[in-house]
Amino acid sequence: MVGEPGTEKITINIGPVDLGRIDLLVQEGHFTNRTDFIRTAVRNQLAASGPAIEHTVARRTLVLGTQHFSRRDLEALRDAGEQVHVRVLGLATIADDVPVELATATIASIEVLGAFRASRAVKAALGPRIV
């Protein structure tokens, strides 16, 4: 089964008593299924932690949301003799048409709290730069 577009799959271990409590809430119609319960719980916890997250994002100068690097973006950095430090809370992507040489010439480091998508070759080449 494939998840919703724009989501990442995670696996968690949960005790049988907690799982039973979740199942009871699902059976009673409070949630449509276990996944609905878990997503709701995660969103509620993130909302409660909102001020701490915002403070940390501001302090660490992270991009909040999605940051995409196209081949053209990285070529412009290369032509200007610059490198970028990718710092994202959310999703960072590098276009599939970006060659390894261009990525390694322009990306100094990568710190992603969330998901990082790039071709296998680019990911492998940038591996030592991923924080």
TrEMBL record:
* Sequence intervals crossing the membrane: none
> SUPFAM superfamilies annotated for this entry?
Ribbon-helix-helix (SSF47598)
Coiled-coil ranges (or none): none
UniProt cross-references to Pfam families, sorted A to Z: RHH_8
What is the name attached to this protein's record?
A: CopG family transcriptional regulator
Q: What is the lineage of its organism?
A: Bacteria, Bacillati, Actinomycetota, Actinomycetes, Pseudonocardiales
